[in-house]
């Protein structure tokens, strides 16, 4: 069953590599740390899920979030997080290529466990990608869903585009 507006998200744990100036050196990998949905208690959060780092549609979706990060902050958003099924090292590399520098965090839900609990996972085994996180966006307020948008066509960015998510705030 898919999570709905008004419901609280399940507890989830992710891994990510926090940005630091040392990561400006492409030969530095950083160290993954744990990150929990507990960090979102009492906060307004936008969670954007993409199928994978460095994939055509996903790679093109993120720059608008970076470009509009101040608009999200003006709308009292405390955290903008990207979640996908890639490992934290791939996500760290992708975040660096995207120039996110910690303004937006990229979280690894490597087994899509949390995403499955939300009812928002997609099985892309037929195309060699396994079970993934899908393309959707959640707006949370103190862990409660205030808005959920799921892309009707996985290869397009419409309802999960940064400009559209801003309208939900």
Automatic annotation (TrEMBL):
The keyword Oxidoreductase applies. Keywords: Antioxidant, Oxidoreductase, Peroxidase, Redox-active center. GO terms for molecular function: thioredoxin peroxidase activity. GO terms for biological process: cell redox homeostasis; cellular response to oxidative stress; hydrogen peroxide catabolic process. Residues 3-169 form the Thioredoxin domain. It comes from the Eukaryota. The active site is at 58 (cysteine sulfenic acid (-soh) intermediate). One of its GO terms (cellular component) is peroxisome. It holds the Pfam family Redoxin. Belongs to the peroxiredoxin family. Prx5 subfamily. PANTHER family: PEROXIREDOXIN, PEROXIREDOXIN-5, MITOCHONDRIAL. This is Redoxin. It comes from Auricularia subglabra (strain TFB-10046 / SS5).
